[in-house]
Design brief:
InterPro entries: Cyanoexo_CrtB_assoc
Number of helices: 5
Shape: globular
Distance between the termini: 50 Å
Protein name: Cyanoexosortase B system-associated protein
Number of strands: 8
Structural class: alpha+beta
Strand content: 25-35%
Radius of gyration: 24 Å
């Protein structure tokens, strides 16, 4: 007498057998603690990122008139005072703050909170701003644009995390992009926190500043992408197992 199994039961048995086989294969890793995600790959361009924290970056069509390392909430930022050789009424000077990833395991977390606390900004008119690019029509960078007001004045502020092929002001977007890069290329995604600041008339609209701030931000992004954040060529072909 033959025993006929239903399709549902057959499927269930196959899943159970596969689960047992996976568990047997994973047992040595479990015992030895050698899970792949417990030892993520290192950032391959960490030395280039360290150089940013010591010398900043070169921005096309802008002059650096002063630069220094400043400490904000226990973290080092590199501050650059920029001046345009062809100033406009709305943007003649700007302050650029950079915090490159300091070590392999560091993730973007509270950079914007640290800056807001140190500057005492009252944030007004926050909005998302998509950056344009001088080199490509498709630059996937979303920056946070707002008016920051404190006792020293009113400022137009633009912030984002830059990485090799894009950027976003939210740390969660970097986390997703980093996970994808680890699974796809077995590499980490280095980052740089970027903040651009320029003085503006009190309570004036942000709209007139949007184009000039976006243009400067795009040049900063392009400089980072072609320098410390440049993609490793190995990722184009995969990384050996």
């Amino acid at each position: 007498m033959s025993l006929k199994l239903s399709p549902q039961l057959t499927k269930g048995l196959l899943i159970a057998v596969l689960a047992v086989l996976v568990a047997i294969a994973a047992l040595p890793n479990y015992v030895g603690g050698n899970w792949p995600w417990t030892k993520p790959p290192e950032v391959q361009r960490i030395e280039q990122l360290k150089a940013v924290s010591e010398a900043g970056v070169s921005i096309a069509n802008w002059q650096t008139v002063q630069s220094q390392t400043v400490e904000i909430s226990g973290h080092d930022w590199f501050l650059m005072e920029l001046q345009s050789p062809n100033p406009t009424p709305l943007l003649a000077t700007a302050t650029l703050l950079l915090r490159p990833q300091p070590w392999h395991t560091e993730q973007p977390e509270v950079e914007w909170i640290d800056l807001m606390g140190s500057q005492g900004w009252q944030i007004e008119s926050p909005q998302s701003l998509r950056l344009s690019s001088p080199t490509t029509d498709d630059l996937a960078v979303q920056a946070r644009f707002f008016r920051g007001r404190n006792e020293r004045g009113t400022f137009a502020v633009l912030q984002w995390y830059a990485w090799s092929d894009g950027g976003h002001y939210s740390p969660s977007h970097w986390f997703v992009a980093d996970q994808i890069k680890q699974w796809r290329d077995r590499q980490r995604l280095p980052w740089v926190a970027v903040c651009l600041i320029t003085a503006m008339e009190p309570l004036s609209s942000l709209e007139p500043y949007e184009a000039s701030m976006s243009d400067l931000a795009s040049q900063v992004q392009a400089s980072l992408q072609s320098g410390p954040l440049a993609s490793n060529l190995l990722s184009l072909f995969g990384t050996p197992a």
